[in-house]
Amino acid sequence: MGSHDCEQICTNTEGSFICSCSSGFDLSSNGRTCNDIDECGVNNGGCQHECINRRGSFSCQCPVGFQLSNNRRSCNDMNECSEGTHNCDGNCTNTDGSYTCSCNDGLLLQPDGHSCRCGGILTAASGSFHTEGWPRAYRPENLQCEWIIQLPNNDATIQFTMNQTAFGINGNPSASCPTDYIQFFDGTSSNSNSLEKICGVHSHYGGTLPVISTTSSSARVVFTGSNLRRPLSRVGVKVDYVSIVPIVYNCSVENGGCDHICVSISEGVECQCRDGYGLIGRSTCSDRNECESGSHGCDQVCTNAEGSYTCSCHSGLELGSDGESCIDINECSVENGGCNYECVNQEGSFECRCRDGYRVSNGRECIEIDECSEGTHNCDSDCTNTDGSYTCSCNNGLLLQPDGHSCRCGGILTAASGSFQTDGWPTSYRQENFQCEWIIQLPNSDATIQFNIDQSAFGTLGKPPCNKDYIQFFDGTDSGAASLKKICGLLKFYGGAIPSINTTSSTTRVVFTGTRFQQRPLSRVGVKVDYVTIPPPDVDECALGTHNCEQLCENTPGSFICSCRNGYSLSSDDRTCNDIDECLGNSHGCDQVCTNTNGSYACSCVDRFTLQSDMQTCISDPTPPPELSTTHPKVVTPSTSVTNISPSGTETITPTTQSVSEIKSTLTELLVTETTVTATSPLLAGTPTPLLPKTPTNISLAPTVLSKPAPTSTELLVTKTTVTASSPLLAGTPTPLLPKTPTNISL
């Protein structure tokens, strides 16, 4: 136990083990250690923004201001404003991946981008301003606030009123109130007249807050206070102001001073705003933020716009025709969503799925699962991966069961040597395997079998007479075969020697019977058997002549091999020999003519060439002597026979003697009859050939004139005789009538 060296997962196999890795890892080439799969290396792991590889896994990460959607791949904008995760003191406006802060009128946005501090310039015809935190306590650091009011109408004046119930700054009516007071100035300069200084006592002692009016269209209001004296539940001040215009508004004149809509009423005019705007003061229309107020109708994302708002949807959904509802996008309807196999649409997303035996990679592609290497198969023995699945097989001596994965001992073995064992050997064999049967059939029917049992591992249960837990060998495969040996398990436990077992034939049957659960359990039970072929004594068929080889015989152990001599090849029956036609290829080496023979070949030359001593090369003959005179010398062959040597052998030629006139007479006869010349010369051998046409032809013999007075017979023998004919078949270049080689000619 624990003797493997797998880094992660170890799967036991018959006699060994297989290492595999957890999801997110693949097995390295050493078959033991596991390497992390970098999912981010392919298509960014399917992440919309950043893919972070982790050991055995990966995760997608979004930039600040975005959050992962339900598919854990894409990023959606976080609405910090609606979710309340912003830090704006005043107003929050969501942006793509962030948000911006703004302050209401009468408040100034600080350099930190989110804090609002009281103060600022107000240019509207009417409005309001207040201390920070109003109507709650104002901050102790805000010791002074200053507001500048500049009306758009220079002819107007300003009227200030304060909220009586909320005014609650610290103060004392009998004191000069150096802190916690608000002061109004009639103008914006530092030396403008003070209109009113109001202490906080009015809230706590029942004082009435006055209405304050300016004489111009601008004013300065200063608040000074410190709430460090004593805590109050409601402190601070809010001031409303309006323009006092000394004219009577008319809708026909400058729209009655209204931003949007002017309506004439008995008192003058009434300003109204278009949809999406709210009235501030008498005439000012300000955008109404429907997204913040919740008065929009968006299903998902609301973005405020000037006088209106727009709706949008999260990733995976699209805006409906009503401009507010969100409808799921069926990504699978376009190119199957990019999925290799099956695309499953989901609300706001989709999912790629694969058929059995495959898994999704990179969110879309399907890759085949190797159940064998990953150890997810259920094979008892060998596992072979297939496309989308796997198949199980069993080692020799084991049979695959109908369930397709279990192996049970038994089967037919046909190898010349091998081994077989009980299930689970060398550990306990299974309870259900009460009997196993093996058939051994050697490929050599003349051989016999020798069995040897593994001495160290044989550990079946039993003792004489061992009616169970034994192995028995039979000399043959039929039911009546004689028993060679019955070996009980006691040989293991009582020191008995396990003998070798020999058969008398090439087939045998081996039966194992056992049930370990009927006896006490043992740590090692079962049996392994090795077998080898014992070949029969060799017989030399070649020496005894009992072979059937056509040419050559070579003895081998238990048999023989036929072969052929040079120039022959062995037939497909491995017995007879076929002649090799060397002339068909380029291996013969003949310069000109190749003639095949049994087991060999012969070279020869065409006219005017002579075969050399290497029996392959042809060399052109030397130039003949001058032509004979027109007299009629006799052509005399040598008095002795001439022997012609050719690649196929030798032939003897008997010389003949004829005069030129005799030859001419003979040729004249040839003109009126079809004459065949049969020659034993290699150049004329073969099918008889017509020497001349039957059409009468004038023939003149022009014997070569010798330079000598009286040529000898031998000289005449080598003289070339030329036939000049007026027949179309013979017209043209003078043609040798006969070869120079001495030849027997019959007419």
Automatic annotation (TrEMBL):
Disulfide bridges in this chain:
118-145, 409-436
Q: Name one GO molecular function term.
A: calcium ion binding
Q: Which SMART domains match?
A: CUB, EGF, EGF_CA
> Which PROSITE patterns does the record associate with it?
ASX_HYDROXYL, CUB, EGF_2, EGF_3, EGF_CA
Q: Which SUPFAM superfamilies match?
A: EGF/Laminin, Growth factor receptor domain, Spermadhesin, CUB domain
Where's it mainly located? membrane
List the InterPro entries hit by this protein, alphabetically: cEGF, CUB_dom, EGF, EGF-like_Ca-bd_dom, EGF-type_Asp/Asn_hydroxyl_site, EGF_Ca-bd_CS, Growth_fac_rcpt_cys_sf, NOTCH1_EGF-like
Keyword line: Disulfide bond, EGF-like domain, Endocytosis, Glycoprotein, Membrane, Receptor, Repeat, Secreted, Signal, Transmembrane, Transmembrane helix
**The keyword Transmembrane helix is annotated on this UniProt entry:** yes
Q: How does it sit in the membrane?
A: Single-pass type I membrane protein
Q: Where in the cell is it found?
A: Membrane; Secreted
List each copy of the CUB domain by range: 118-244, 409-534
**EGF-like domain ranges (all copies):** 36-76, 538-578
Could you mention a single GO BP entry for this protein? endocytosis
Question: Which superkingdom is the protein from?
Answer: Eukaryota
Which PANTHER family did the record assign? Answer: EGF-LIKE DOMAIN-CONTAINING PROTEIN, VON WILLEBRAND FACTOR C AND EGF DOMAIN-CONTAINING PROTEIN
Q: What is this protein called?
A: Signal peptide, CUB and EGF-like domain-containing protein 2
